[in-house]
Amino acid sequence: MAFRLFVPILAGATLRERLFACIGAVIGITLTGVISGLAVGNGPYVAMLVAPMGASAVLLFAVPSSPLAQPWSIIGGNTISALVGVTVAHFVHDPVIASGLAVALAIAAMSFTRSLHPPGGAAALTGVLGGPAVAAAGFLFPFVPVALNSIILVTLGYLFHKLSRRNYPHVHVPAAAGHGTADRPAAERVGFRPEDVDAALSALDESFDIDRDDLERLLRQVELQAMVRSHRTLLCQDIMSRDVISVPETALADEARRQLLDHNIRTLPVVDADGRLAGAVGLRELTGATDTVKGVMSKAGTASADTPAMSLLPVLTDGRSHAVVIVDAARRILGLITQTDLLAAAARAQAADKSPLKAVA
Q1: DSSP state of 147
Q2: Do the Cβ atoms of 278 and 266 come closer than 8 Å?
Q3: Helical packing angle, 71-91 and 119-129, nearest 10°
Q4: I want to staple 324 with a disulfide (CB 3.0 to 4.6 A). Which of 84, 94, 233, 301 is the partner?
Q5: What number of other Cβ atoms are within 10 A of residue 18's Cβ?
Q6: 277 — phi, psi (to 5°)?
Q7: CB neighbourhood size of 158 (10 A)
């Protein structure tokens, strides 16, 4: 218990993520210093790299989804705070009073400009206590090197995360209803509502380093995982259809449309010459198509036979997918689960939970 104070508490942190953060920091800080040095010519009055960039790099590469690590937070927060620090130092000559005032005003300025960034406090202090180089630079300091450093670091961070296939800048993508209407997605019409999240945040009366929409997404995933755990014994092989209608990828679009309409189905798996799943088509993909289905098929949602059935909820409630194809290790079709199949299974499971016989047992 005594060692819990030394255990990292960052949610979702893995060794792989931390290693990526270290690599990103090495590249980001080194290149920021090199590029800034070339830009300012390593002059005697302006530092090529300011210390707050180290703290900014921690946020940018270790927690890129944090609201405090977004481009405007880094660039705006550092620049505005440095400007506040230099301004305070210009009017208040006592370094102790100026330091406290600079940090306080920097927090206020970042809050009002929606650019809150913790290293901004260090940038404000640097503007006050930076020494002769900062004093000589005067009101140029917030822009060169602070803004210059920040812009270069964010650009390098963007390129690094893009190459490593990470989402940066972090943008919350809301789930689509899928019908072009104002209705919320099916998965978000049950359970808690957005106003419940707002009410909970208001009741706790604390600030959290997570975007409000990301918090809602996290809570919905918690709900889903709890449901999957409670119904873990129900597997895909227990509820899947086994007589699956499919078409070869060489089939014409008209043939695929006829199969969909004749069998009154919404998803038609497409198989290659070896009988392996290649994709899927529905009437949406076939609209206006005249050639073979290979040119218009989309990626099919898949799962294995021993996958917990309730884990298909995110796919079958995303507003776009109507079925999941159950395949083996060689991607040969074993069965298919539709939204109706999963709904019926969930209803049976709920009925069994409320059964008087279960209560007696």
Answers
A1: I
A2: no
A3: 30
A4: 301
A5: 14
A6: -65, 125
A7: 16
Q: Find where tokens 């530092």 sit.
A: 47
Classify the phi-psi angles of 212: left when phi > 0, otherwise alpha if psi is within -120 to 50, otherwise beta.
Answer: alpha
8 Å CB contact between 142 and 84: no
Contact 102, 125 (CB under 8 A): yes
Answer yes or no: is pLDDT of 43 > 90: no
What is the tens place of the pLDDT at every residue in 248-275? 999 999 999 999 999 999 999 999 999 9
Helix (H) or strand (E) holding 360: helix 356-360
| Secondary structure of residue 268 in the 3-state scheme | strand
For residue 296, which phi and psi values (nearest 5 degrees)?
Answer: -125, -5
Provide the residue type at 147 as one letter: A
**How many whole angstroms separate alpha carbon 183 and alpha carbon 177?**
6
SS3 of residue 192 by DSSP: coil
User: Alpha-carbon distance 39 to 36, whole Å?
Assistant: 5
Q: How far apart are CA 265 and CA 243, in angstroms?
A: 13
> Long-range pairs for 214-220 at CB < 8 Å and ≥24 separation?
214/65, 214/170, 214/172, 217/172, 219/192, 220/187, 220/188, 220/191
Q: How distant is the alpha carbon of residue 189 from its chain centre?
A: 21
On whether the CB atoms of residues 134 and 52 are closer than 8 A, the answer is no
**Cα–Cα distance between 338 and 166 in angstroms, integer?**
31
Query: What is the chain's Cα-based Rg?
Result: 28
Q: What's the confidence (pLDDT) of residue 136?
A: 87
Q: Would the pLDDT of 361 be above 50?
A: no
List the structure tokens of 195: 């106003």
Domains of the chain, each with CATH number or no CATH: 10-163 (no CATH), 236-350 (3.10.580.10)
CA–CA separation, 132 and 123 (whole Å): 16
Q: What pLDDT sits at residue 42?
A: 57
Give the separation between CA 36 and CA 69, rounded to whole angstroms: 21
Total residues belonging to the chain? 361
CA distance 273 to 137: 70
